[in-house]
Specification:
The protein has two domains: about 55 residues; about 160 residues, Jelly Rolls. The protein is about 30% helix and about 30% strand. The strands form four sheets. A four-stranded antiparallel β-sheet has the order 2-1-3-4. A four-stranded antiparallel β-sheet has the order 7-14-9-12. A four-stranded antiparallel β-sheet has the order 8-13-10-11, with no helix packed on it. A hairpin with a 6-residue loop joins strand 5 and strand 6. The longest helix has about 35 residues.
Length: about 240
Amino acid sequence: MNPDYTQAHFIVWGSDLVPYGPVELPTLISWVKDERVTGDTWVFLGQDQNWQKAAQIPELQLFFRTEARVLPDVLSGRKQSLDLKPGALRRIKILATLSDEQIERFIRYMEIEAVPQWKVVVKQGEHGDTMYLILDGELRVRTIVAGKETTLTTLSIGDFFGDISLFDRGPRSADVVANTDATLLKISSAAFDRLAAEAPDVATPFLVAIGKTLSARIRADNRRYENSVRMLQKI
């Protein structure tokens, strides 16, 4: 087996006794949803260099568990059911540095939202106070000018959006629309204030991770702007 495989890579032992891969986690999850991979399918984990049944892999247990865990909806008191293991939540990039114990406390402040395909999750111009983290599915960030839609970026498992409104409760800068059915974790500004007050050791690394991601986005935008200016200067 290639020793250079990273934790992002998996190999699936097919029912035809042929190995498939290596693939990354989003592809493996899509195979699970398509029932190409079942709970009894053997999967090789690049990070651990061993084989496990799919249902035993933390990142996939979300899709195989039959006994759901009940989490509180912090705003309305309603209850949503979903198995949220720390391993499954580590597919969200900004939670990757948190310990299992910190993640267990973090999800107490979260809500679950199942989003159907084509739903507009946030609408440009509307004021919001909620940040979303993507557990499953694909969404697009769009803006509409003169009746014409422009897709700014596509978001998938592990991404997040709405972070600015979490802090300033201001207007959304773009629409976010579900390209597919999606499962989101969301945290309101009120819930985040509680998190910061009650669990600062969880809130601090969470904020640092958001800051690092935003810094990377700003640098990328600056490079695109610089490249655009250079192209215009050549015209």
